[in-house]
Write a structure and sequence with these properties.
Blueprint (H helix, E strand, L loop, with lengths): L14 H21 L6 E4 L6 E2 L25 E2 L6 H22 L4 E6 L11 H15 L10 E4 L11 H4 L1
Parallel strand pairs: 1-4, 4-5
Antiparallel strand pairs: 2-3
Helix pairs in contact: 1-2, 2-3
Length: 174
């Protein structure tokens, strides 16, 4: 998925400010849905966040030759995973942003389920199999433990692209 920050958030200069924006946006959006009588059953935090979310992007010479989505000028103010080789620190930053979305959702709709969505569906069948998927979600849950009370999320979402993944589907993976 596309993981760039929205244009309106590109001037946010700290992870605290970005997390506050995520929480406020999520709270406002879910509150509006509840107020109009269309409360969601579940709120998905991010979209295909396998490599993180809310990247700063490539605006400097450091990233000039890189793909916009995979280069990040300032890892300290984004939710990009494996940014500059800092696995633990990048997971901690990413978890803060996910936790902000979870808090915003639960503040507006305590009964709504929370889902986290990745594009790891194709791994159910190939490579390391389901273990890779489980490891990713366990790592996120471990990093969310300091930010979220109770179960950090209620559901996982897994994208699969049979056209690009050799025809893999959940049925063929079983």
């Amino acid at each position: 998925g596309q993981q760039r920050k929205p244009r309106a958030w590109r001037n946010l200069t700290s992870l605290d400010a970005l997390a506050a924006a995520v929480r406020a946006f999520t709270t406002d959006t879910v509150t509006a849905l509840v107020a109009q009588g269309t409360a969601p059953v579940a709120v998905q935090i991010g979209n295909e966040v396998t490599h993180g979310m809310l990247f700063n992007g490539a605006s400097s010479a450091k990233c000039a030759a890189s793909d916009w989505d995979w280069c990040d000028d300032d890892c300290a103010t984004s939710g990009r995973l494996w940014c500059d080789g800092e696995e633990g620190a990048s997971w901690a930053r990413f978890a803060r942003l996910v936790a902000a979305g979870i808090a915003g959702s639960r503040a507006a709709c305590p009964a709504c389920a929370v889902a986290v969505h990745t594009d790891l569906g194709q791994h159910v069948r190939g490579g390391a199999g389901i273990d890779e998927v489980v490891a990713w979600y366990r790592t996120l849950a471990r990093h969310l433990a300091g930010h979220v009370r109770g179960a950090p999320f209620d559901a996982i979402g897994l994208s699969m692209y049979p056209k690009y993944d050799g025809g893999a589907t959940l049925r063929s993976a079983a």
